[in-house]
Amino acid sequence: MYYIVNVLLCVIVLFLVFVCRQVSMNVYSKDGIAIACLMRKPIDLPLWLKHHRNMGVTHFFIRLEDSPGFEDILNTQKDVYLEIGQSDQHNNYTTLQTRQINFVNKCIHMCNIKGIKWIFHIDADELLHGDLSFLYTLDPQYQLIRMENAEALFDKNQKHCFHSTQFLRCSLNAPCRSYVNGKGGGRVSSELGIAGPHHFSYKSEYIGDFVYEAPFQQLGVLHFDSCSFGAWVEKFHHLGKQNGDNIPFPYYRESIESANQAFKVYSNKTHSDVAKNLPKHIVWKKD
Q1: 189-221 pLDDT tens trace
Q2: 184 close to 144: Cβ distance less than 8 angstroms
Q3: At CA 211, angle to CA 134 and CA 247, rounded to 5?
Q4: Is the sign of the CA dihedral 241, 244, 246, 247 positive or negative?
Q5: 3-state DSSP assignment of residue 22
Q6: How many CA atoms lie within 13 A of 192 on its CB side?
Q7: Strands 183-187 and 144-147, how do they pair?
Q8: Residue 68 covered by a domain
Q9: Angle between the 250-260 and 229-239 helix axes, to the nearest 10 degrees?
């Protein structure tokens, strides 16, 4: 009888160990997912952090530029690595990407040391949207993630930037005013690098069968660009401290010109007005 009891106890213990291991495979590990971000005067930093923590992001690598007051907040956050820097006061648009690339490459190295599994690069006016849990069961052949971006439509009665519920699907030829080529993430390794400000590279390549194209509903990026007049003016006035003709995006050039000339609004049509005349498949509504 004593022998049978011991055997049953061993079976129960082994079963519990098996269950715990299975559960641990389906939850976020301690050092699972990181975001790298160079930010300047973020629009809603507490909400940005809370949103991504709720998604399962465990580490934030932040380079903070020209943002007095935010340093005190970030220094109290145990999951935040903080680097203080300054923007280029004379030619910020051109040099911004170089600072981003250098910082993200530094973050990749730190993630490798810490054992962090995945890293994403987004901006302070962007939110990841979807479910990150699939990363822990994603086929090992995939080293890079490519995500579609959607651009927020702002209602004139909207009180908070991140509360938009309608978005333009930029990859579906919607009239997005910023970028249309999405953002990316990477599986942390010594072979991971950054390929410009939007995507990562694996063994110095960013196209191949090692890239996982995430369906938008699974994982995407929501972009809340210049949600208020003040944010729009400040951003483009600062970007315009150089020859605007060197900037390739028409919306950026026009915004810089307008911001530097009596703070006039860029367009008489709001994003919401534009959305009324668009096919339904390129306007996505958030639940």
Answers
A1: 999 999 998 999 999 999 999 999 999 999 999
A2: yes
A3: 115
A4: positive
A5: helix
A6: 28
A7: antiparallel
A8: yes
A9: 100
How do residues 224-234 score in pLDDT, each as one tens digit? 987 754 554 45
The CATH number of whichever domain residue 88 belongs to comes to 3.90.550
- Residue 237 in domain: no
How crowded is residue 117: how many other Cβ atoms within 10 Å of its Cβ?
Answer: 17
User: pLDDT averaged over consecutive 10-residue blocks of the chain (287 residues)?
Assistant: 54 45 40 94 92 98 94 94 91 84 97 97 97 96 98 81 91 90 98 95 96 98 77 52 56 55 44 67 78
Residue 249 three-state SS: coil
Distances (CA, A) of 198 to 44, 46, 156: 22, 24, 30
In a domain, residue 162? The reply is no
Give the count of domains, the chain: 1
DSSP state of 70: H
Phi, psi angle pair for 175, to nearest 5°: -80, 60
**Which letter does DSSP use for residue 155 in this model?**
P
Radius of gyration of the chain (CA): 22
Q: What's the Cα-to-Cα distance from 95 to each of 54, 65, 183, 239, rounded to whole Å?
A: 33, 13, 19, 10
| Contacts of 56 by beta carbon, 8 Å cutoff, 6+ apart | 28, 32, 33, 132, 133
Residue 161 structure tokens: 């930037």
Tokens of 69: 């007051």
For the record, the structure tokens of 58 come out as 């465990």
* Residues 44 and 119: beta-carbon distance below 8 Å: no
What residues make up the domain containing 137? 33-146+181-215
Contact 71, 156 (CB under 8 A): no
Report the C-alpha gap between 196 and 194 in whole angstroms: 6
- Assess contact for 264 and 258: CB atoms under 8 A: yes
3-class SS of residue 172: helix
Is 130 within the bounds of a domain?
yes
